[in-house]
Structure formats: C-alpha cells, structure tokens
Write a structure and sequence with these properties.
It contains 6 helices and 11 strands. It has helices spanning 46-55, 57-70, 118-150, 187-199, 208-217, 222-229; strands at residues 2-10, 14-21, 28-32, 35-41, 78-80, 85-91, 97-101, 104-110, 158-161, 168-170, 176-179. Strand 7 and strand 8 form a beta hairpin.
C-alpha cells in the first residue's frame, strides 16, 4: 500500500516517482512508460530514495537510451502500422498538432522542439499509441470475425487492451483479448495472432493438437511464422 509519494522531472531521466510502500522491505527501481518508479520502504525518507536513484543514475540512463533507440523519433521519421503511417515533422505554427486521416497520421511539432528530450519522445509515442488503440478498436474485431468465419471458428466477445506482455489471449468461454500493439505488426503476423487465438478456442494449451490446428490454418507455417513473430516487440 502506498503511503506517500513524490514526483518530479529529472533533467536526464525524465519523470521520476518515488513511492513509500508499507509492505516494502527493500528498494525497487523500474522504468515504466510514465517514467522511472522508485518504491521504498515506508520508514525511508524521500532523500534516501533520491540517493539510491543517484547510485543507479548511469545504469538507468543506459537502459533508457537502449529503450529509446528502437523507436527514436526525429524530424522526418516515419512509422508504418497496420492501418496508418505516422509522419513526424516540424511546423512554423505556434502550436504543435496532429491529425489522422486517410491512413496517414501527421504529427507536427513546433520549430523549437528538441527531439533528444525524453519527454518529447514520450509525447510522440502517446499520440501514436492513442491512434493505434482507436484504430485497433475499429479494425481488429471485424477482422477477427472475418478470419474466424473463413476458417470455421466460433468466437464470442472481443476486447482490445494495452498489454505489452501478450499480443493476445483467449478464455475458455471463447472470449478473445487483443493488445492494440498488434497494430505494430506486418499484416501476415497480425493474421497469425488472430489465428493463434482462434485455435485456442478449440485447444486451450500449446499441445501438439494446437500446433497441428495452427499449421492447418497457416498452410504449414505455424512454427516459421511464430519464430518470425519473436523478432517483433512492443516499445
């Protein structure tokens, strides 16, 4: 249980949140989408938490850089998703803006924008994520039902979530959850995710029977496509 918290922006590390937790007996440091989270025992002072953060500053900076390298946005950057392509640019207008129309997401930032600023990178990601979520809700349920009908599967509820650990999941009631990050995959792997979860509607585990069914609906490419999928990750 969180008893107290302190939040601030660090010039190098970006947003930092220090939480005092009653059940903590040690310190944990995590890098989350919202920034760096430091959880400390309730009897620690916030200054103690900041001291510990300083001890790990260089390691955290290295991890942040590695995390940003994969999707580091600059002026002129382009990112293709399943249903739209994002274009990053600068604008001479006084305010930044973004617009999604006809399969193109234009994110225009002010001339003075510093793309090396972690906060700017987070803002760009949040805009793209918001559009991916809306597009996933618009596109994926109909696509899943179409794929299910084609291969004679039955599916009940379909929900879109923000999971970064799983592309999708299927319950025993044939309800399927899909992460909106699926939109980062190329079309043939989006279809693989849908087929994978549909196969779970008849075989809940990853037994030989499951792989045989997935092979049937992927033209014998179940293992090959699954291996390719492992080279793709969310940011």
């Amino acid at each position: 249980m969180i008893t107290e918290e302190k939040k601030y922006i660090d010039a190098e590390l970006g947003p930092v949140s220090i939480y005092k937790k009653t059940l903590n007996r040690s310190v944990t440091l995590r890098i989350k989408e919202t920034g760096i989270v430091v959880a400390i025992p309730a009897f620690y002072s916030f200054s103690k938490g900041e001291q510990i953060l300083e001890q790990y500053r260089e390691k955290l900076k290295t991890k942040l850089l590695k995390k940003q390298e994969k999707f580091r946005f600059e002026e002129g950057s382009k990112l293709k998703t399943y249903s739209f392509t994002a274009f990053i640019s600068r604008t001479s207008l006084q305010k930044s803006y973004y617009s999604l129309k006809d399969g193109e997401l234009h994110i225009a930032l002010k001339e003075t924008t510093d793309f090396t600023n972690p906060e700017i990178q987070r803002v760009i990601k949040k805009i793209i994520e918001g559009c991916m979520r809306k597009e996933a809700q618009r596109v994926l349920p109909d696509l899943l039902r179409s794929v299910a009908a084609k291969h004679h599967f039955t599916v009940n509820e379909i929900k879109i979530n923000s999971s970064k650990g799983r592309w999708g999941s299927c319950s025993g009631k044939k309800n399927i959850n899909l992460s909106f990050y699926v939109m980062l995959l190329p079309p043939h792997l989006v279809e693989l995710i849908l087929l994978h979860e549909l196969c779970h509607t008849i075989e809940m585990n990853h037994s030989p029977r499951f792989w045989k069914e997935l092979d049937r609906v992927t033209g014998g490419k179940a293992k090959l496509l699954t291996k390719e999928l492992k080279t793709h990750h969310t940011w």
